[in-house]
Structure prediction request, 65 residues.
Amino acid sequence: MRVIIDIEDNKKGKSFIEFIKELPFIKFKIKEDGKRDKKGEFSELFGIWKNRDITKESLREEAWR
Prediction:
């Protein structure tokens, strides 16, 4: 079973997570709310482009032909 819990109060959320960690039958993953802290390279976002010479500019040129 998978349950997603959205906790608005960070302090209470951390306390809840500490409690959950003590229960041996529960495994959990923390997923951040999708905010990016730093900018990455565009080509790193997609595995199919790894080790290929593709840039944002080349994609734009290809798309507008």
Remarks:
- The chain has two helices and no strands.
